[in-house]
Amino acid sequence: MAAAGALERSFVELSGAERERPRHFREFTVCGIGTANALAGAVKYSESAGGFYYMESGKLFSVTRNRFIHWKTSGDTLELVEESLDVNLLNNTVRLKFQNCSLLPGGVHISETQNHVIILILTNQTVHRLLLPHPSRMYRSELVIESQMQSIFTDIGKVDFRDPCNSQLIPAVPGLSPNSTTSAAWLSNDGEALFALPSASGGIFVLKLPPYDIPGMVSVVELKQSSVMQRLLIGWMPTAIRGDQGPSDRPFALAVHCVEHDAFIFALCQDHKLRMWSYKDQMCLMAADMLEYVPTFKDLRLAAGTGHKLRLAYSPSMGLYVGVYMHAPKQGQFCIFQLVSTENNRYSLDHISSLFTSQETLIDFAITSTDIWAMWHDAENQTVVKYINYEHNAAGQWNSVFMHSLPEEEIILRDDQDPREMYLQNLFTPGRFINAALCKALQIFCRGTERKSDLSWSELKKEVTLAVESELQGSVTEYEFSQEEFRNLQQEFWCKFYACCLQYQEALSHPLALHLNPHTNMVCLLKKGYLSFLVPSSLVDHLYLLPDENLLAEDEAAISDDVDIARDVMCLIKCLRLIGESVTMDMAAVMEMSCYNLQSPEKAAEQILEDLITIDVENVMEDICSKLQEIKNPIQAIGLLVREMDYETEVEMEKGFNPAQPLNIRMNLSQLYGGNTAACIVCRGVCKIASTRFLICRDLLILQHLLMRLGDAVILGAGQLVQDQQDLLHRTTPLLLSYYLIKWGSQCLATDVPVDTLESNLQHLSVLELTDSGAVMANKFVSSPQTIVELFFQEVARKHIISHLFSQPKAPLSQTGLNWPEMITATTNYLLQLLWPSNPGCLFLECLMGNCQYVQLQDYIQLLRPWCQVNVGSCQFMLGRCYLVTGEGQKALDCFRHAASEVGKEEFLDRLIRSEDGEIVSTPKMQYYDKVLRLLDVVGLPELVIQLASSILTEAGGDWKSQATLRTCIFKHHLDLGHNSQAYEALTQIPDSSRQLDCLRQLVVVLCERSQLQDLVEFPYVNLHNEVVAIIESRARAVDLMTHNYYELLYAFHVFRHNYRKAGTVMFEYGMRLGREVRTLRGLEKQGNCYLAAVNCLRLIRPEYAWIVHPASGAVYDRPGASPKRNHDGECTAAPTNRQIEILELGDLEKECSLARIRLTLAQHDPAAVAVAGSSSAEEMVSLLVQAGLFDTAISLCQTFKLPLTPIFEGLAFKCIKLQLGGEVAQAEAWSWLAANQLSSVITTKESSATDEAWRLLSTYLERYKVQNNLYHHCVINKLLSHGVPLPNWLINSYKKVDAAELLRLYLNYDLLEEAVDLVSEYVDAVLGKGHQYFGIEFPLSATAPMVWLPYSSIDQLLQALGENSANSHNIALSQKILDKLEDYQQKVDKATRDLLYRRNL
């Protein structure tokens, strides 16, 4: 039976109508030509349609593969649409309006050349030729790899519709039939466009347009039976006699067959004769009376053959076939002929077959070299399509096409159902109503209110809801309603709108034509509102859907070679059909609801059986029982039927294309059936199969319960066991639920997902390393409303199916033709395998997860989970992913835990845990948990990470690597959540020391950044104390000092543990680095505080231990990550090994503390000094302070560090010099630094200048800070004299008191001879007793006083200097003055000496 599954005994219609939006037609108006008659243009013809297939549409590697054009005419409008099953064509629809003209029915003829697609159009007044590019010339490469491409209609706007070369008015030729609707058109080998129209006299007029690229005349030729030809030029009115033909000969059906250099024009005339004309010879080559092939033709002879139809079919191997439909009032007959050529260019018809039909109104038919396809409208206004093989069908039995039925006329609501919800569900369930019908109904229902016509499916749903609710509210006149009244009113308005939609759906479903492609055997129905496709029906569906009277012996033979088994199966299916016909809508709803509500289908089947038995008024159950008696082995028949419907397979389909195939072949195949239309057809085919099989399984369940009720003895015979029935029952139930699930997925709409959500989802899935799987590659252009099965087919399944179909071709792919029935059957079957719930693959669920269809995925798994035991773990994992998205974390965690038990048993979970490098680092379950933890982490659920990691610690057992990973994970997320204590506890339990150290480092950094320093300091750090200190020290030395407080943290850490020496060392190092690296006022302040803290720490220690080791320079500058120092050769320099250790005691720290305070003082006084003050030594600071004028501070610093004050006195002297020589600006600036020094007293008696104050400050310092040798006086006077500044009297007087001799030497050094003479003179006088107190001489020269002396060396130098210039009288005078003084002094010394000697001798 399986082998015969592809037997094409019947077809099913599948609507390919666009749901997304109504087609957006670009409109163009073709203006009237010449003297087109507006009145004649008002003639209305019936609507018509037709199609064109490209010659290479069936070739696998053609640009035009699976591509065709179809059109519809209505009045003055022509709508053209180009379709492709492989790609989505852009700008593929166009609407042409012909002004003052009406299109002839069937007046559109399309031909293709190597470079062009040429459309020939006939209206009742004009003919037109449209020249469009051929698809093979539109694209740069023959390899089509894009999912969207431009249609041949893209540039139709550039066409000049009024070009006289391509548009002509049909001349008013005598004899042209005014009311004829038939026509024909073709292209000659020379590129001429020829249009054939019937003449009233029985001939044919042929209008010829010259080739589009060659100028020429337009001509008209009339073909007559008498073989007399008349050529009529446009504008010339002939007077020739028409001939002896009568109006009964007028053609009403024309068809053309082109041969090499000729065209045969076939005309079926009103006299029931078929005539064939040669255009080249312009003569009638054949005439055949069709009534000769009609058994009873007397009635037909008298009637005009206006209902007859004519079709041609050409086969390169078999020749030309002619199909004629002979219409009679209550019957019709198809006659098939083959054109036979005889001698002398004579032709005849070879009658092949005559087929009869009873349908009344034939809409259209098409023939091939083997089949006839026909479409009727029956008395009930229903479309009927049938086909038959006219060569091998002796019984004349037509094969059925199961048509797509209109939605049910009435919706029955239960009391617990909301009318709005149920009507919307029925209106917008995919496959029921087309967008155009809903839009038209909405427009009528709203009474002409302007509404957008270009609405998406979701927008249309909102508009419909709003419109019906508005109408409902507008009709309400009372303010209060009972719930029952409101529900009735609601149902009334929704029912009204639903009826309106039904009316338009029926109108748009009116058939217009058949479109048959002989190259691919694809049959389409062209309807008023949409396009539908015919696909083969499987044998099981065929037998179930076909009425008993249409069943043939070949159907029975197709089931099985065993006649008894085949007969049993036929009887079984008849019983199922009887049950199906007896099941009411309410009963059917019971089974549907039991499946949806996860209840037992077996119980629902029992309940339906009880109801069937209860209401069995027509004794249907007796008929079923009697038919069951005819089945010899029902268990075997049921088993065969169940096996036939089961798509379960053990082998998983290949993934991806065969890499052995060339790249261009793989890329070309990757586009096969990639268009939205193909996806829609395939998925509707799956939905149709699932719906039919669901009914079969439902009826089979009911039948099996009936069998069990009847009992073994009655029906099964003694050899059968109840156990066999139970087994079959339990096999049928999953089958029913599987088909229900597939049907549900085929009708469940996918959600339109924003791009940012898709990207976020992709990021989450990348953690699972599933993004390389085709199933999770998110499509950012999800068109709404797409069902989830369509989404799966387009995104994932199609490539798998196509690669599987062509993985091992029977013939070379280049020679492979595409047979539509075979391809669509195989594609549908493989898609069903991929969708089958009990198959090992999990691609469908992965696809939903990858495209963010989480609500649908959740619903799907909920429907699947109670009964399907395959992919249990995978479903649990994906359900957990759904719960994560919906924010139900705890449920997600439970699902992830349940899925863990299936790791290693399911393909999806195995792929999930597969590492990129293929290395297995731990057990599969631990790898799975690792992926889940990473997923929870990236989603941002640390609490769940902790909970899951904690729960699986026991499973890790002795695996210390897994333990380390889990505890590290727990630590990290506790830390992220601010659970510091728990984070520390987890840290201490990490068995891996390197990981523990990393985590410890992270703990320190994070708590510092959060300023949670108390926790950081107070943790006990058992066995980790040194590591913590090392980490903090490393961080302290590596980061910016002013933005991080690691030194202060380390200080607190040591103080908390009473390690004051370490604390002091830390703060001293901190202060050192602040001085060197932070050249700001804030840095100096912190430096002072650091040194102060260090001093305090040492003061807390016993004196003998109050010392620290001076931090080496490496502790400051050798930071982690710093580049190594190199010598001139580029080699790394070795670190010094004999580094001297320097010990700092408390006094040293106090000095540093004092120096830091002074630095801050300087910086506050002079901000410019901040840059250099931080790391300056005491000596350098003295210079900086002197420069800034802070002399008191400088003296304090010198006293602290026991430094000489000489630089201070020199600096102050220099400032005095500058002030004395400077102007007002210098005077004003001086007050700032003068104010910073404490003067001994304030003079208020007279106005004092800055210069005076500076001198007074200098004087004060000289009086206050006296040293041996009077060094400070000396340096001051030396400074003044070096700058040529006269010495102030107070300074001279002051120095005379302490060291007059030195003053004399200074005078001599700077050549101040006159001052030196005066000083010597005064000094001699003082020694002799005159003004001795001014020179610090306590006892002048006398015999009783101590001895006195004179600086003879200096005086000798002075005399020598004065005597060097003997020409200078002034010098001579000065020299004489000194000599006189010395003479006087010598005399008095002599006298005093004698007195002294005298006294001694007494």
TrEMBL record:
Q: Is the Transport keyword given for this protein?
A: yes
Please report the stretch or stretches of sequence annotated as the Nucleoporin Nup120/160 beta-propeller domain. Answer: 67-540
Q: Any keyword Nucleus?
A: yes
Q: Which residues form the NUP160 C-terminal TPR domain?
A: 1145-1402
Location relative to the cell:
Nucleus
> What keywords sit in the KW lines?
Nucleus, Transport
Q: Which Pfam families match?
A: Beta-prop_Nup120_160, NUP160_helical, TPR_NUP160_120_M, TPR_Nup160_C
Q: What is the protein's major site of localization?
A: nucleus
Q: Which InterPro entries match?
A: Beta-prop_Nup120_160, Nucleoporin_Nup160, NUP160_helical, TPR_NUP160_C, TPR_NUP160_M
Q: Which residues form the NUP160 middle TPR domain?
A: 836-1100
Going by the entry's taxonomy, the superkingdom of the source organism is recorded as Eukaryota
Q: Where is the NUP160 helical domain?
A: 562-792
Record PANTHER family = NUCLEAR PORE COMPLEX PROTEIN NUP160
Supply the name of the protein: Nuclear pore complex protein Nup160
Organism per entry = Vulpes vulpes (Red fox)
